[in-house]
């Protein structure tokens, strides 16, 4: 091969493998938003102009590349509100998307119809949902497999996920609901007011609500520095739990490979604050193998509960005001130092949680509420 031919090959490979030049795109109406999303290329930054937009279901089957994500954003949090009646609003089946600074509202006529603001499936690796306020969905952020592929390395950071009313549905409730997937990070979120009501004792696994769960043979999950309020601005609803590895189990057809050995493994829950889940676990481990639960603060909850023989966890340096640390049905716990707060009446959350809760309450009072 001549030097000229070799140079031609190198140029061709560079053009073939490299992403197109990143573009800064500003959109200011529904049609342009939808067009920009469907035509987005790796590295594009799509900025939505301030305003309120009513959008249909969006399906994203193309994505960015490693190091060149497609970013969808508002200039600042509070500038842009996206409202939808879609059952699944934004479904992402490709990698490297970032969504930030958006207010997203479910506006369905019945709660059963508003399932997910984001549904992350198949090969949607490295999706980043950050610094958004999302309300009034059954599972605001949902992750699971599709076509035998499960998304990995997803980040959910700095969001507020909440409800403006008690939900009326038989569907599962969990603002973050993930089945399968490896190395997800859930960090610095506030999750609040996600209870649902029904007129019977909990008889099905789906009757229990969770702030979040990872199940379905998920692994390597990191859950840290989140603030959870089972009920704050809304009345408390029974059977409402906090953070969970394992949730209430997974149908075998939905698991990544198999759930025969566990629902979740090799995951960490640390430095979280869970409040106001009376009678139900603030942290619940079910078929969670080699979990680590450390340095969490639980106030007004049913404590930390581990269940099932294949649950194994190190539970150390947690502070509880209300509830106990309990192993049930053959679960194996290394308790280390399970620190209790004894003066429950005076227990207060850490400063960072208090600041976040104060800001949430002020914002919640400004959000339009559905008419009952």
Helix and strand arrangement:
Layout: H1 3-17, E1 24-27, H2 30-39, E2 45-48, E3 51-55, E4 58-60, E5 70-73, E6 80-84, E7 88-92, E8 97-100, E9 103-106, E10 116-121, E11 128-130, E12 133-135, E13 141-144, E14 155-157, E15 160-162, E16 176-179, E17 185-187, E18 190-192, E19 212-215, E20 218-219, E21 222-224, E22 227-229, E23 243-245, E24 264-265, E25 268-270, E26 273-277, E27 283-286, E28 288-289, E29 291-294, E30 297-301, E31 303-307, E32 312-316, E33 319-321, E34 324-328, E35 332-334, H3 351-364
Parallel strand pairs: 1-2, 2-5, 3-6, 4-7, 5-8, 6-9, 7-10, 8-11, 9-12, 10-13, 11-14, 12-15, 13-16, 14-17, 15-18, 16-19, 17-21, 18-22, 19-23, 20-24, 21-25, 22-26, 23-27, 24-28, 25-29, 26-30, 27-31, 29-32, 30-33, 31-34, 32-35
């Amino acid at each position: 091969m001549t030097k000229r031919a070799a140079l031609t090959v190198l140029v061709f490979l560079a053009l073939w493998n490299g992403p197109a030049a990143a573009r800064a795109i500003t959109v200011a109406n529904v049609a342009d938003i939808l067009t920009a999303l469907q035509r987005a290329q790796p590295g594009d930054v799509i900025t939505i102009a301030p305003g309120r937009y009513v959008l249909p279901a969006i399906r994203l089957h193309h994505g960015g590349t490693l190091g060149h994500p497609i970013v969808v954003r508002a200039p600042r949090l509070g500038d842009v509100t996206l409202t939808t009646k879609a059952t699944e609003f934004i479904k992402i089946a490709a990698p490297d998307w970032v969504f930030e600074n958006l207010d997203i509202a479910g506006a369905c006529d019945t709660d059963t119809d508003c399932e997910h603001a984001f549904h992350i499936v198949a090969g949607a690796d490295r999706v980043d949902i950050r610094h958004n306020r999302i309300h009034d969905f059954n599972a605001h952020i949902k992750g699971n497999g599709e076509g035998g592929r499960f998304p990995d390395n997803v980040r959910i950071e700095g969001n507020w996920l909440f409800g403006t009313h008690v939900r009326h549905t038989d569907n599962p409730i969990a603002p973050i609901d993930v089945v399968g997937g490896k190395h997800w990070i859930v960090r610095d979120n506030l999750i609040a007011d996600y209870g649902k009501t029904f007129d019977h004792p909990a008889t099905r696994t789906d009757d229990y609500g969770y702030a979040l769960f990872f199940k379905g043979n998920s692994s390597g999950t990191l859950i840290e520095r989140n603030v959870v309020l089972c009920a704050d601005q809304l009345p408390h609803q029974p059977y409402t739990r906090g953070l969970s590895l394992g949730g209430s189990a997974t149908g075998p057809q939905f698991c990544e490979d198999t759930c025969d050995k566990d629902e979740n493994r090799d995951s960490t829950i640390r430095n979280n604050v869970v409040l106001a889940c009376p009678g139900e676990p603030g942290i619940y481990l079910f078929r969670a193998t080699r979990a680590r639960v450390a340095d969490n603060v639980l106030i007004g909850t049913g404590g930390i509960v581990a269940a099932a023989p294949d649950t194994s966890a190190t539970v150390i340096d947690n502070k509880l005001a209300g509830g106990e640390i309990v192993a049930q049905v053959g679960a194996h716990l290394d308790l280390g130092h399970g620190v209790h707060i004894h003066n429950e009446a005076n227990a207060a959350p850490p400063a960072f949680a208090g600041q976040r809760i104060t800001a949430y309450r002020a914002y919640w009072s400004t959000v339009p509420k559905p008419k009952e």
